[in-house]
Amino acid sequence: MRHGSKPTIRDVAEAAGVSLTTVSYVLSGRSGGTTRISQATQDRVHAAVSELGYVANRAARGMRRGRTELVAVAVADLEQPRDRALATLLARILPEHGYQAVILLGGGWRQFMLSGGADGVIRTGTAATGGDAATMAELAGRGVAQVLIADDAGDAGRAVHGGYDVLPAGTDSPEVLAGRAVTVLLGRLRS
Predict the structure, then answer these.
(1) Interatomic CA distance for residues 178 and 191, integer angstroms
(2) How far is the CA of 37 from the CAs of 13, 14, 47, 52, 61, in angstroms?
(3) What's the chain's Rg over C-alpha atoms?
(4) Could you report the per-residue pLDDT of 124-175, keeping only the tens digit for each?
(5) Distance from C-alpha of 70 to C-alpha of 102, rounded to nearest angstrom
(6) Among 119, 2, 8, which residue's Cα sits nearest to residue 56?
(7) What's phi and psi for 107, nearest 5 deg?
């Protein structure tokens, strides 16, 4: 490992005295295919990871798997109590389901999502208009999971508009809204 550089999977393999494939299998939790990886070998790999301070590159893993394991949480303003509460709750709930939340403010979510920044988005605000509508339509065409918690969606239950889900904010608490939004989004992500 070069001085000052981040450790790589190759550095872990060298430190543990194993192949890159073995490190990959151990770190991903896979069994190793037809070859069983002994507990002693797994322990050496984990020790090398700890000793070197290796952290997997999320972007590289996402490219290989075709998913980012990120969900964008797009809110208009963290000064608004409901938006702040939803962002906080979603940042806590999503990791329980294998996704990290990326909190985005204002209209910046559009470019982030169009560039493939996350597997899905939960957005607060009004029903899609203007630039939001065009972005949501394009993302829906790409099959990106989207949930809009809309202030102006009335009190009807969940609706589907143009390939994305709309949840009416109504009088539900942020806890209820966050739970509903995650349930709907996960259903889309896993289908």
Answers:
(1) 20
(2) 14, 17, 15, 21, 22
(3) 20
(4) 886 656 678 888 889 988 889 999 998 765 555 555 667 788 888 888 899 9
(5) 7
(6) 8
(7) -80, 0
